[in-house]
Amino acid sequence: MNNIDYDEVLDIYFQHFGKGKTKHSRELTNVDIIIDFDKEDNIVGIEIYNFMKAIKESDKKLDEIFAKAKKIKKEKKK
Q: Is the pTM value of this prediction over 0.70?
């Protein structure tokens, strides 16, 4: 079973994979992500904190990359 949830107030995305129960979790350093593992160390879930903030920042960076690419393409045509 694959359960997905999002807490708008706390800006946390949750996803639980499969049937396993979380035995322990590990926080990835320098990012707001926690990975949940079952007793056999299979990944059974993920939590992403500041989710929408990260999405918006990614969209902004992608827009900047595409704008630069368009500018370079126009300059090459000259």
A: no
